[in-house]
Design a protein that fits this description.
With 101 residues, this protein is an alpha+beta fold. Helices cover 45% and strands 25% of the residues. The protein is built from one helix and five strands. The longest helix has 45 residues.
Length: 101
């Protein structure tokens, strides 16, 4: 099973038939990255997954979960690095200030 591309999420959308409303899921990206099924050589921002519980839908959910498992630790690392940088620069300023007196 693969991993969803960065920045993708699941979206629920509604399709109306003549007598009934249907709900489907799609994998949605910020940019057109999915090969178009209608036009060869073109790309789309959406990859249709179908109704809830279908194999395509479940695979899409798992792909997004795996992407989040990759992205979330990196966000924590980046946040810790920013905090350390702020703390370090504050300590350096205090050292400079205290060395004047």
């Amino acid at each position: 099973m693969s991993v969803a591309p960065t920045g993708c999420h699941l979206a629920l959308y509604q399709a109306r038939g003549q007598y009934k409303t249907y709900w489907y899921y799609k994998l949605q990206a910020k940019e057109a990255i999915f090969p178009s099924k209608k036009e060869s050589g073109k790309f789309s921002r959406y990859q249709h997954l179908g109704a809830a519980g279908t194999e395509s839908h479940v695979n899409g959910v798992m792909m997004v979960i795996k992407r989040n498992q990759i992205d979330e630790p990196q966000k924590s690392i980046d946040s810790l690095r920013d905090s350390w940088s702020d703390l370090y620069s504050d300590l350096e300023e205090k050292k400079k200030f205290s060395s004047r007196f």
